[in-house]
């Protein structure tokens, strides 16, 4: 069995954040050049921080995409059953690199959880915090504000992998 998908969610919130950071940088630079402004260097440093944020968001979320796949592993268990891996591939232009490979035998299938963006910040906050408490979190999402995320706990590594929620992928992760 093999299943894969690429996240194709809307990036409008990302573009709004980048534009907002660039506008903020322009405004702060302009304010720093006014003649009677005390400490213009503070405005200029703020502008540099806003411009840096815009560059970071662009490089981190806009220039790279991820492919998520369930692929057969070369390992066969004692009963002769073929094992599968969750493989996450980072795509930057024409360059592809596997950034995460998790054997599905190590995943806590009962604890695979999908969290959406609720109406209030506290809708899933406590459950998400409990799931991630004391664990290393690896986020492989294409946008800082995704509509729904799948949290995949890996008890052996004391970590959680976060990917965009895809209905078929979640079904496979919960079933194995």
Structural write-up:
- The chain is of the alpha+beta class and 176 residues long.
- The protein has a domain at 12-62.
- The chain is 35% helix and 33% strand.
- The chain has helices at residues 12-32, 40-62, 125-132, 167-175; strands at 3-6, 64-76, 82-92, 95-103, 113-116, 136-139, 148-154, 159-164.
- It has a four-stranded antiparallel beta sheet with strand order 1-2-3-4. A four-stranded mixed beta sheet has the order 5-7-8-6, with helices on one face.
- A hairpin with a 4-residue loop joins strand 7 (148-154) and strand 8 (159-164).
- The longest helix is centred in the first third of the chain and has 23 residues, at 40-62.
- The protein is elongated, with a radius of gyration of 21 Å.
- The N and C termini lie close together (12 Å).
Secondary structure: elements and pairs:
Elements: E1 3-6, H1 12-32, H2 40-62, E2 64-76, E3 82-92, E4 95-103, E5 113-116, H3 125-132, E6 136-139, E7 148-154, E8 159-164, H4 167-175
> Strand content of the residues, in percent?
25-35%
Low-confidence stretches: none
- State the share of residues found in helices, binned by percent: 25-40%
The helix/strand series, from N terminus to C terminus, equals: EHHEEEEHEEEH
If you average the pLDDT, what whole number results? 84
Structural class, from helix and strand content?
Answer: alpha+beta
How many strand elements?
A: 8
């Amino acid at each position: 069995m093999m299943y894969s998908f690429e996240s194709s969610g809307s990036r409008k919130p990302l573009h709004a954040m980048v534009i907002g950071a660039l506008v903020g940088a322009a405004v702060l630079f302009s304010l720093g050049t006014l003649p009677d402004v005390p400490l213009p260097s503070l405005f200029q440093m703020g502008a540099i921080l806003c411009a840096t944020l815009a560059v970071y968001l662009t490089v981190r979320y806009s220039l790279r995409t991820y492919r998520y796949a369930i692929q057969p592993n070369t390992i066969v268990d004692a009963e002769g059953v073929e094992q599968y891996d969750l493989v996450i591939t980072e795509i930057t232009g024409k360059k592809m690199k596997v950034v995460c490979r998790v054997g599905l035998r190590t995943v806590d299938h009962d604890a695979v959880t999908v969290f959406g963006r609720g109406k209030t910040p506290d809708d899933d906050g406590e459950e998400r915090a409990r799931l991630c408490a004391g664990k290393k979190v690896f986020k492989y999402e294409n946008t800082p504000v995704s509509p729904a995320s799948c949290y995949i706990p890996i008890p052996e590594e004391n970590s959680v992998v976060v990917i965009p929620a895809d209905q078929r992928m979640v079904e496979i992760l919960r079933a194995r």
